[in-house]
């Protein structure tokens, strides 16, 4: 796929992942695209390395499914990291739980 296809895939998948997680993700469109692209790469790599699923092209269903799953995973990690950095330390973070 070309760079424009990666950006489009990243944007669409990032928005889908953000929607699936509900209101938890509070970030802009650039972060959404970057997480979507990174999620597509991560999902494609995991699918091919561990499950033998080949992600071929832009319109292939396996490409979209693995990209969405990878983006959701990265978005969850991003949420955990950014929610911790907003507090004043570990004691306050544990107190909220």
Total number of strands: 0
Radius of gyration: 15 Å
Instruction: Assign the structural class, choosing from mainly alpha, mainly beta, alpha/beta, alpha+beta, or little secondary structure.
Output: mainly alpha
Return the string of H and E elements.
HHHH
Straight-line N-to-C gap: 43 Å
Share of helical residues: over 70%
Overall mean pLDDT stands at 76
Overall spatial form: globular
Strand proportion: under 5%
Largest sheet: none
What's the helix count?
4
Give the low-pLDDT segments. Answer: 89-94
| Count of spatially separate domains | 1
Membrane topology: Multi-pass membrane protein
Organism: Herbihabitans rhizosphaerae
InterPro entries: Transgly_assoc (IPR007341)
Keywords: Cell membrane, Membrane, Transmembrane, Transmembrane helix
